[in-house]
Amino acid sequence: MAVGRLDANTSGLLLFTTDGELANRLMHPSRQVQREYMVRVFGDVTEEMVKTLVRGVELEDGEARFEDVQYAGGEGKNHTFYVVITEGRNREVRRMWESQGVTVSRLKRVRYGDLVLGKDLPRGGWKELDLKEVNYLRELVEMRPESRTFIDEQRETGKRHKKQTQKIRRAVRRFEERADGSERKKPSSSRNNPNGGRRGRDMGDLQDNGGRGRNRDNRNRGRGNAGGNQQQPGRSNRRG
């Protein structure tokens, strides 16, 4: 089962597990497990807006706030931020920014707890969590640690890992090619369309952010990678 979810327009890190209790505890708001997102915002963003989002805003289903906001740059009306929340309400990050009159044009989950989406994991790819990472998640929600793993950790390193990554990339590429081919083969709807089937188609530095913003380049993000264990909790998937 999936630990939480991502909506259709959101990409990034997903965790999967065969342990229902672990999944439920990780998702429950009382556990305050951090989720970090990279978000691209379109509109005029001010420091006061960011401070308001850190203090909290009122949504239809209650108050929501960012635990941390980091400005990562941008130009014109396009700005990139890294934000942290500790619950997983439906479209929460998007709705919070919309409450300030701006639009989220891209959203990507990059971290769950201390498990970070690594660049070595291709889009659509997955990897197994090792025993240390599985037990980190279990400890996070006050569950007993596992004592053994069914993964051959020696085989998961070096050349085999590189080969597996290349295999995943090829599989994703084949899937995308098949999807594109299916789209091209769809029958034209021009007979039902009178138009013949044609369709028409200086922000300052925000690093202060109410005392919470920091330069992302200085942040140490070497806290492992995301993934999962088939027998024990935790398989990760990179969506997008």
Largest sheet: number of strands, sense, barrel closure = 9 strands, mixed
Shape: globular
Any idea what the CATH architecture is? 2-Layer Sandwich
Rg is: 21 Å
CATH superfamily: Pseudouridine synthase
Strand content: 15-25%
N-end to C-end Cα span? 19 Å
Number of domains: 1
Q: What proportion of the residues is helical, as a percent range?
A: 25-40%
Order of helices and strands: EEHEHEEEEHEEEHHE
CATH topology: Pseudouridine synthase
According to DSSP, the number of beta strands is: 11
Count of helical regions: 5
CATH class: Alpha Beta
Q: Which residues form runs of ≥5 with pLDDT under 50?
A: 189-204, 207-225, 227-233
Q: Could you say which structural class the secondary elements and strand pairing correspond to? A: alpha+beta
Mean pLDDT: 79
